[in-house]
Predict the 3D structure of the following.
Amino acid sequence: MLSIKHLNPRTEHLERRAATCGLLFIAGSMNVVLSILFNTSQSGTVPWGLFVMAGGFAGYVFYKTRYYTRMLAHRRKAGGERLKPVIYSGGIR
C-alpha cells in the first residue's frame, strides 16, 4: 500500500514547511546564544534572534499540527473506504 506521502503531495509540502520552521528555530537560538557569548556591545542581535526563534517555533507547531490532522483525516477516510466493499458485497466473508 502506498503511503500518504505518495498519495498527496500536500502532506510532503507540510512536512517541508515544518522542517524549514524547525531550522529557523535552531538558527534563531544559535543567534541568541552566540550573540550573548561573543557580542559585548549594548545593541546586539539578541532581539532579532528571539523573534526568529519564536517565529520558527510557532511555524513548526502550526505546520506539524496541520500535518498530523491531515494524516488523521486521511486514515479515517481510508478506513471508511476499506469497509465500503465489504458492506456492499453482502457482509464479511
